[in-house]
Amino acid sequence: MSDSTPATPRPTTTVKVALLGAGNVGAEVARILLDHSTEMAARVGAPIELAGIAVRDLAARRTVELPEELFTTDAEALIDAADVVIELTGGIEPARSRILRALHAGKPVISGNKALIARHGRQLQDAADDAGVPLSYEAAVAGAIPIVRPMADSLAGDRVDRVLGIMNGTTNYILDQMDTTGAQFDDALAEAQRLGYAEADPTADVEGHDAAAKAAILASLAFHSTFTIDDVYCRGITGVTAEDVAAAAEAGYVIKLLAVCERCAGGVNLRVTPTMIPREHPLAGVHGAYNAVFVEAANAGSLMFYGAGAGGAPTASAVLGDFVSAARRLVLGAPAQGAEPHAQLPAVPMDDVRTSFSITLTVQDRLGVLARIAQVFADHGVSIYTMQQKDDPHGTAQRSEIRLVTHRGTNKDLTATVEALRELPFVEDVTGVIRVEHAD
Amino acid sequence: MSDSTPATPRPTTTVKVALLGAGNVGAEVARILLDHSTEMAARVGAPIELAGIAVRDLAARRTVELPEELFTTDAEALIDAADVVIELTGGIEPARSRILRALHAGKPVISGNKALIARHGRQLQDAADDAGVPLSYEAAVAGAIPIVRPMADSLAGDRVDRVLGIMNGTTNYILDQMDTTGAQFDDALAEAQRLGYAEADPTADVEGHDAAAKAAILASLAFHSTFTIDDVYCRGITGVTAEDVAAAAEAGYVIKLLAVCERCAGGVNLRVTPTMIPREHPLAGVHGAYNAVFVEAANAGSLMFYGAGAGGAPTASAVLGDFVSAARRLVLGAPAQGAEPHAQLPAVPMDDVRTSFSITLTVQDRLGVLARIAQVFADHGVSIYTMQQKDDPHGTAQRSEIRLVTHRGTNKDLTATVEALRELPFVEDVTGVIRVEHAD
Lengths: 440, 440
Description:
Two copies of one chain form a homodimer. In chain A, about 35% of the residues lie in helices and about 25% in strands. With about 450 residues, chain A is of the alpha/beta class. The longest helix of chain A has 21 residues, at about 310-330. Chain A is built from 14 helices and 17 strands. In chain A, helix 1 packs across helix 12 (about 310-330), helix 5 (about 115-130) runs parallel beside helix 10 and helix 7 crosses helix 8. The first copy, chain A, has three domains: about 15-145 and about 315-330, NAD(P)-binding Rossmann-like Domain (Rossmann fold); about 150-310, 2-Layer Sandwich (Dihydrodipicolinate Reductase, domain 2); about 350-435, Alpha-Beta Plaits (2-Layer Sandwich). In chain A, the strands form three sheets. In chain A, strands 3-2-1-4-5-6 form a six-stranded parallel beta sheet, with helices on both faces. Chains A and B meet through helix 2, helix 5, strand 6, helix 6 and helix 10 of A and helix 2, helix 5, strand 6, helix 6 and helix 10 of B. Chains A, B: Belongs to the homoserine dehydrogenase family. Chains A, B: One of its GO terms (biological process) is methionine biosynthetic process. Chains A, B: Pathway: Amino-acid biosynthesis; L-methionine biosynthesis via de novo pathway; L-homoserine from L-aspartate: step 3/3; Amino-acid biosynthesis; L-threonine biosynthesis; L-threonine from L-aspartate: step 3/5. Chains A, B: It is an enzyme of class 1 (oxidoreductase).
């Protein structure tokens, strides 16, 4: 269902969006809605209008580069005039009252407010259910990682037994630094603060409160039950020493601040604690400020979802995914369907595409060989990324092996290069012609 | 919205399910629908009835342990009598005609048929859109990994730039074996066949055709366009040698059969080829028969989805996730909402939960110390998983350090154990008391 399938008529009334909050994420959401309004309209099936941005203090608008006339301090009037409400203010009140006001008026709400959802999620969901409109909060758990929807929908036919999550980027950055550099907690925290990964007051992160809120939300979805942040046993990482990290490493473990939600006798236990996990566990490979959620389900087995857990643009992506779904449902009167080909990009054949190659040459070891080979690449417009020569791979001093990785070139040019290399008199063999994906 | 929120009335008519196909996945779907019908009913909001299983040949029913009376060869009659159709037969015809028959009659369809969706997905989706019913095929791409729904919904407000996928478990197993054991392709293939990871005729896997079908489906969703398997440039792994793998390893790379779908000048290029990726890339850590999809999006940044790409139970999980969504929509006349607390499991406090701990003791090195310590654990009903003694950590021969990891015990017992250890006269310090998650 999209603009390119005219068989299905649909309303073209503009969808008016009320944005509450203009922090990191709010400003990014506003920017994307303004800069990419045509794309958004194609995805939703109707024009999108950012009706306004509610802030507590109009002085706040000066910190973000958005049109001044969009800002208002009258959130209630903005909500009443909108079709969809995006709440990105944080805290319990007035966020809760405003979300309830929108839901009671039958307006879909998207929220990224983990503290609120972890505390009053049930009340808000009931209000949404009563009004028959969606309440979505993908952005409230693990930032950009799509986990709320997979948990609620994709795993709806399975039984989740355990959820293990690295759900706070600040603490993962600190522990990862301690693991890779041997730093003490205080030094790693200072470094995280210097780089903007940790706030001046890092309490909510390092004491585990942020991860605990996310764990309560995720466990509610995973176990079809209602948990709040008060159900989560929570210990932070301030007591973890460089010696603990080193001892864990020696034993083949890495220490992560892990949220664990697991079925046990009598129900579900929710905890956030520094936890040793084996180095070979997929979660052990989650470095820096990245987040990941590892799910163990009866039939699906082990699943992992990995991505950026915070940041303006990543979190805005999650907010806008929820927004497009909600708006599409509003416009079409039905949930979104599968592959909607509104972009209709053509498939580009291999010969017109630029990729990198690794190539191994066995050559007779004569003076000037490298120069001649490099010239062949240059003649075909392919530039060399790395080149490595190894003497005597086959036990004869007259031969050597040269391994090259190219920059991106067209398939046609690379094929022609390989053919030309094969014709060089001193080239005995060209092997290992394999594509490479690397940052270049 | 569930049976436990009586405020919302809903029809309680039974949802009749037609299952087409009784292979690995079909048999598993049938088993779960039969064995877990009460749970399924709670999730859907109405009773579920497996109306029948259509097979080509009734002799096939003897290979699976399901009630004989469920089987039929009249797929059309079964479809006509059902409310929801699950197609797990594979191949183009008669699967396509049967899916169209169901969609034209306004019945939601769930399919795991990648060959069909990769070839005729657009036609089937148009039929579903015209009828206003969902066509779902999470099981057709990367087995249990929820990727179709995140791609279609969660990333709907973002711009996907590139998708890199390990989408075939057989070839990943073979390449992983070659990487870790130095085996040649033929030997790794034989091992995969012996373990049931590869079929007797491995062509579709090792030549990349299976991955190519999945790439076409995924790219259609990622780029809001229509691609078929014919748009995918496809090279298999039969030419990859042990020498190639060793050379890649030496250069810091690992070879994977990668599906790459990327925006480029003029559109999107789709390719499946053996590809070298840096060892530090998250996809490099995908071992054995596991699958993973790595997505690069403008705002979300890098995301990865990891899990079992094949197998009866994992794929059945994906089928049933789609089924619950479709059936819930049928019953409620609306898409599924968020946290439906139909299970209402209680939160279990920490003291009643069994977890493992790592504990480090600094002790005066006397005869019988280990026995006394072990006795303390035994007295508190906590068993020891591993114990390691290191002499002289602080440069004095009179002290040693003992590191223990326990089996699971209650928090209460572990706390009491630590307290008792602290009171032992020869114990100087108890440090590094950290929870451990390991298989036990």
